[in-house]
C-alpha cells in the first residue's frame, strides 16, 4: 500500500485497528474499496474445505477478521455453527445485509483484546490474512489470542503470506509474516498437522496454509 493511501486511511502504528472502520464505512455490499474482498470464500480456504466436506456437523467454528463474511458462510454450508467477528462494526453491518437468511452470528470484536467468554470454545478457528493486516509489534498478542480460541482437540486453519525479510511497519500494510509464525502458534499448545506453501502468491511472498490442532 502506498503512502498516500496509508495517510488517507489514517494507518498509524499505535492505532492499529482504526483504519478498518474507515475502510468498511466507505464500502458497500459489493465490497467496493476493500482490497481483500473476494466476495467469495478465499480460494486457498475453498481448496481446503472442498477436500474436507461436511466436517462441521455438530461442531462450532469461529472466523477471525471475517470482513465481508463469505468464509463464514462457507463454513455454515459445511455444517458448522459459526461465529464470525470483525473489529469494524460497519463490516458486521455489511455481512448481515449480504446474508440476511444466514444463522451465522456476526459480531464486532477486537482481536487485540482478550475475549474470556471465547476461551478454548471453538472446535474450528479460521484465520486468513488478519495477523498480516496489523503492525508487526502486535504479532505475539494476536497469535496468543487466536490460539486461545481453539478448544481441546480443536483445529486452527491459518492462511497467510510469508516473507524472508524482517517485518517492519514502514513496509506495510500488508505486513507479511515470517515462517516463525508456525513455532509461535506451537508455543501455545498447538501442533502443526498439515502444511503447504505450494499456492500462488500475489504479494511477492509464499502463500501458506497451515492446520494446527490442540
Question: SSE layout and pairings?
Answer:
Blueprint: H1 3-9, H2 18-25, H3 43-50, E1 60-64, H4 70-77, E2 81-86, H5 89-98, E3 105-108, E4 122-128, H6 139-148, E5 150-162, H7 181-186, E6 191-199, E7 206-213
Parallel strand pairs: 1-2, 1-4, 2-3, 4-5
Antiparallel strand pairs: 5-7, 6-7
Quick rundown:
The chain has helices at residues 3-9, 18-25, 43-50, 70-77, 89-98, 139-148, 181-186, and strands spanning 60-64, 81-86, 105-108, 122-128, 150-162, 191-199, 206-213. It is α/β, with parallel strands linked by helices. The chain has one domain: Rossmann fold (3-Layer(aba) Sandwich).
Describe the overall structure.
The protein has a single domain, classed as Vaccinia Virus protein VP39 (Rossmann fold, 3-Layer(aba) Sandwich), CATH 3.40.50. The chain has 7 helices and 7 strands; from the N terminus they run H-H-H-E-H-E-H-E-E-H-E-H-E-E. It has a 7-stranded mixed beta sheet. It is an alpha/beta fold. The protein has helices spanning 3-9, 18-25, 43-50, 70-77, 89-98, 139-148, 181-186, and strands spanning 60-64, 81-86, 105-108, 122-128, 150-162, 191-199, 206-213. It starts with a helix and ends with a strand. The longest helix is centred in the middle third of the chain and has 10 residues, at 89-98. The radius of gyration is 16 Å and the shape is globular. Helix content is 27%, strand content 24%.
Amino acid at each position: 500500500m502506498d503512502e498516500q493511501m496509508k495517510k488517507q486511511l489514517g494507518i498509524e502504528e499505535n492505532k492499529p485497528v482504526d483504519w478498518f472502520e474507515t475502510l468498511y464505512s466507505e464500502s458497500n455490499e459489493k465490497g467496493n474499496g476493500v482490497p481483500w474482498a473476494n466476495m467469495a470464500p478465499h480460494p486457498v480456504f475453498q481448496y481446503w474445505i472442498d477436500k474436507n466436506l461436511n466436517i462441521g456437523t455438530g461442531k462450532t467454528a469461529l472466523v477471525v477478521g471475517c470482513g465481508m463474511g463469505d468464509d463464514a458462510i462457507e463454513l455454515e454450508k459445511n455444517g458448522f455453527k459459526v461465529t464470525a467477528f470483525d473489529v469494524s462494526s460497519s463490516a458486521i453491518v455489511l455481512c448481515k445485509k449480504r446474508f440476511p437468511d444466514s444463522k451465522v452470528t456476526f459480531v464486532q470484536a477486537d482481536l487485540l483484546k482478550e475475549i474470556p467468554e471465547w476461551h478454548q470454545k471453538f472446535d474450528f478457528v479460521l484465520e486468513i490474512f488478519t495477523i498480516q493486516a496489523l503492525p508487526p509489534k502486535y504479532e505475539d498478542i494476536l497469535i496468543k489470542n487466536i490460539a486461545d480460541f481453539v478448544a481441546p482437540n480443536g483445529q486452527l486453519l491459518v492462511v497467510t503470506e510469508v516473507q524472508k525479510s524482517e517485518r517492519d511497519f514502514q513496509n506495510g500494510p500488508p505486513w507479511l509474516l515470517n515462517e516463525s509464525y508456525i513455532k509461535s502458534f506451537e508455543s501455545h499448545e498447538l501442533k502443526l498437522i498439515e502444511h503447504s506453501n505450494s499456492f500462488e502468491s500475489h504479494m511477492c511472498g509464499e502463500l501458506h496454509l497451515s492446520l494446527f490442532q490442540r
